[in-house]
Amino acid sequence: LFSGGLDNKVRLWDLKTGEMMRFFSGHVSPINDVAVSRDGLFAVSASKDKTLVVWSVGTGSIIHVLKGHNKEVNSVEIAPDNRTIVSGSSDRTLKVWDARTGELRHTLLGHSHIVNAIAIHRTGRLLASASADKTIRVWRFG
Question: What pLDDT score does 142 carry?
C-alpha cells in the first residue's frame, strides 16, 4: 500500500504487518495522490508542488520528475499497459505522459475549473475526468 502525506513524502506499507517498509522523498509540497503500475515496478506521486514523480518501487529512487502543470497536481493514474501516465490539475488540464521517457504527449483541455479526479477504464481505451466545474468528461484514450 502506498500513501502520500502532508510531510511531502510517499510511504510504502506492508499490509500484513502494518509497518512502513520505505519512504520516498523528493517533493517539496504535500502529496495529493499516488498511483502504482499494474506490474508493481513503479509508482507515481502527484503533489501540490506542481510536479509528478515517477519512483522505482524496488529501490525508492526517482526515475522521472514530470513538470508541465502550472498549478498543483490533484490526481494521477497509470494506464493498464503501464506505458502511459495521466495527471489532472488545478490548472484545469489533464496531461498525458510517456511513463518510460517522462515525455509529455498531450494536454487535454475542456474543464472550466480544477480537475479533481481521473480514472482509466480497464481496457485502457477510455479516460474519465471529474472537475469542480460539476462535470465529468469521458475521453477516447489509448
Answer: 67
